[in-house]
Structure formats: structure tokens, C-alpha cells
Write a structure and sequence with these properties.
2 copies of one chain form a homodimer. With 207 residues, the first copy, chain A, is an all-alpha fold. Helices cover 66% and strands 0% of the residues of chain A. Chain A has 2 domains: 45 residues, Homeodomain-like (Arc Repressor Mutant, subunit A), CATH 1.10.10; 140 residues, Tetracycline Repressor, domain 2, CATH 1.10.357.10. In chain A, 32% of the residues are buried. At the A-B interface, helix 8, helix 9 and helix 10 of A face helix 8, helix 9 and helix 10 of B. Chain A binds a DNA duplex (18 and 18 nucleotides) through helix 3.
DNA sequence: GTCTATACTCGGATAGAC
DNA sequence: GTCTATCCGAGTATAGAC
């Protein structure tokens, strides 16, 4: 989207989005006022209505944009020809990194769904299903090829996504482990959850 | 807690707790007014202040009570002498069932932490750490005994808890699978995540 | 312990000048 | 596109009667 004025750096709409995202994540949609958002941007509250028709539209914009970007990012990351195990590993690393780097947007996307009006809710839910479907597809492929051994692809997909997204609740960039180390650990757990054959030693003695 | 009046069924404080829990879960702490809670109970808003000093105290009561009960429930469920694998399975089933049956309290406990004032927040966080510690302990024991094979007990504990709690986001009591079936599937995934030796076939060929 | 009434503050949103 | 000014409804919480 191009600038409409040449004046100050980022256009106002984008600064409103950024301010709202940060405030909604920190304190919740209902607890944040339009005046606060305006204050963070450096304009009066009335000016926000030149860019978003109301508070609801602002929330809906943030959630839809986030889900659209997430889906597009995975589509461009997913490689066509590789084993299901390799794809699942790629997904695990992608999901962790993408979510950790956008913790505000992720937080809002999970917490503020209930504040969406029905039509907007359905739209965002549908995007979420699309994303979950990516994991189901990987698991189906791995089961079909014999790489994975699992009972229920849908449940396993939900479990894997929940596990990976959970990193956001405790991750701190200056923490004990680097993001790469965290990715390694989770990759192992995700593959094990799917019943992937492990190259390493976990098969010492069955029984 | 005993009744203070013999008049109408449950005492008012308990009915306030129940109404607040349901409303906070459905629409969020900030979005729910004291008038609404009072309306659900069948009293005037001013009457709530006879039982809770303010809205914050009501939220704090709900979160602390929930965490206390959760911790007590696991303590009474945990058996002393059994293998780590068996204990982890018991924990997985316990966690799923307990959380699914109290979805409102669970939801609030995760979502409304940020609305707690600092002192109350620290108190609830400390209880949460206690609960997470139970899982860390099980994993440590299993690693020490050679039952589990994992890189990092703390990370694995967080991943397991996130995976199990995730059931709440999609579980419906009249859904495709029974709670027992769900528990079975998750138990397998949790044990695999911890690198537990499986009796079943997942060890066909290493490499 | 609950009521009615109310103080006081703040919310979203709009009108109209510039 | 942003401002100032404003409408009006709703929020938490308290005072005082019963």
C-alpha cells in the first residue's frame, strides 16, 4: 500500500495498526480505549475514524491480516518434493519462529476471537482451519507413506499446533536456550508425537 | 464453606463466583460489568460489594481458587509408588479430564492473568509454577530411571502441558471422539514426546 | 444483606471548523 | 486528514434507608 502523503515516514493507518496491536496484546481489546490508541499514535481519537470505521473494524483488520500473512508465509516456505518427516520438521521450525517473532499478533489472534462480531469471527475461523489443514495434510501424507504411525490425524495436528504455539507463553529472547536449540527440541517431540521413525537410539529394547 | 443463611439454596457469594466465572470466560474480564454479574445473580450491583471488595478481588478469588483446587486434585490423584511412565500417563489423563470439565475456570486462568494487579499476579504465577513443577519432577524421575529419553525436562514439561491444555480449545462433549479415546491418543503422544519406550511397534527399523 | 439513588469518570462515536 | 467540542450511554463504587 503506497503512501498518500509524503509527510512523515509511515502512513497513519499503519501506525494505528501497530499501536493497536501492541495495546490490545498487552491489556486486551475491551480494556483499551480509542483515546489510548490515538495517544500512542499522536493524534486525536476522532482521527482514527478516518482510517477504520470503528473499533471492531480495527480488530478485524489485525486478525485477518495476521492469518493471511501466516498462511502466505507457510505456502512460500513449504517445499514441494520432500518426505513428510522433513516437511513436518520444516513446519515445526517455521511455526515456532514465525509465532515467536510476532507474539503480539499471535496473542491477539487467540485471545480476542470472542470479541469479533459473528461474521468477522467466521472469517478468521475459516483462515485458522486452513492453517490447521496444512498440518493434517502433512500427517496424512506421512501416514500414507508409512513414515508416521498415528491414530488420528486431526487430533495429532491440533496437539502439535498447541505444543508449538505454547512456546510463546514462556519464550524470552535472552533466555537460557537459543531459538535454534528450542526448535531442535520441539522438532524431536513433534516427530515423535507423529510416530515418526527416529534415526537415533530411542529403540533400544522394545519391552 | 458452610452456609451463613438457611434461606435460598446456595449462598450469594458462591452464586456470584459462578456467574462471574461464566461471564468472564464468555466475554472477558474487562468487557463484563458488575451490573451484568449482579443481574445474572438476581441482585443489584451494590450488593456484590458486600461479598467482594471490588471487581479485581473477584477475579483474584476465581484464579487462586482454581489453581489451589487443581494442585490439590493432582496431589490426591498422584500415587506414590509407580513407574514414571505410569505416572506420566496418569497425569495426562488427569490434566485432560480436569481441564475439560472446568473449561470456564481454565480459560479465565490463562486469559485474564494480565488483568491481575501485580501482587495477585505473582501469587497466581507461583501456583502455576508449582503445578508445572509436578511434570518436571515426573520427567526427571523418568530420565533418572532410564524410562525416558529427553533433552530438557523443563521444555518438555511446558510442551506436554501446552499440548494437553490445547484439548480445551476444540473439545465438545458430543464430539466425534469420547473423552476416553482422546485421553488414549494424548497419552501415547505425551509418552512419545518424553521418549518413553513403547511396548508397541514404533521400533521397526532404526534407519 | 440488599435496596435505591447517585457521584464521578470514562467509553465509542459524530459534527463541523480548518 | 486532523482538530476541538460534544452527545450520550455505561462503567465502578459509595451513601444511606430499610
Amino acid at each position: 500500500m503506497a503512501r498518500t502523503t509524503g509527510s512523515i515516514g509511515v502512513e497513519t493507518a499503519e501506525r494505528i495498526r501497530a499501536a493497536a496491536e501492541q495495546l490490545f496484546a498487552a491489556r486486551g481489546f475491551a480494556a483499551v480505549s480509542m483515546r489510548e490508541i490515538a495517544g500512542a499514535v499522536g493524534v486525536q481519537a476522532a482521527a482514527l475514524y478516518n482510517h477504520f470505521s470503528n473499533k471492531q473494524a480495527l480488530l478485524e483488520d489485525l486478525l485477518v491480516t495476521h492469518m493471511d500473512s501466516l498462511i502466505a508465509a507457510w505456502k512460500s516456505e513449504a517445499a514441494a518434493d520432500e518426505t513428510a518427516g522433513k516437511t513436518l520438521e520444516r513446519f515445526a521450525r517455521f511455526h515456532i519462529r514465525y509465532h515467536v517473532e510476532r507474539s503480539d499478533a499471535v496473542f491477539i489472534s487467540y485471545m480476542e476471537l470472542r470479541n469479533l462480531e459473528p461474521e468477522n469471527f467466521r472469517r478468521v475461523e475459516s483462515l485458522r482451519k486452513t492453517y490447521e489443514g496444512f498440518v493434517v495434510d502433512i500427517l496424512e501424507a506421512g501416514r500414507a507413506s508409512g513414515e508416521f504411525e498415528l491414530t488420528d490425524t486431526r487430533i495429532t495436528a491440533m496437539a502439535i499446533i498447541a505444543m508449538l504455539t505454547g512456546v510463546n507463553t514462556w519464550y524470552r529472547s535472552r533466555g537460557r536456550l537459543s531459538l535454534s536449540e528450542i526448535e531442535d527440541i520441539y522438532t524431536t517431540m513433534v516427530l515423535r508425537s507423529a510416530g515418526a521413525q527416529q534415526k537415533e537410539a530411542s529403540c533400544l529394547a522394545a519391552e
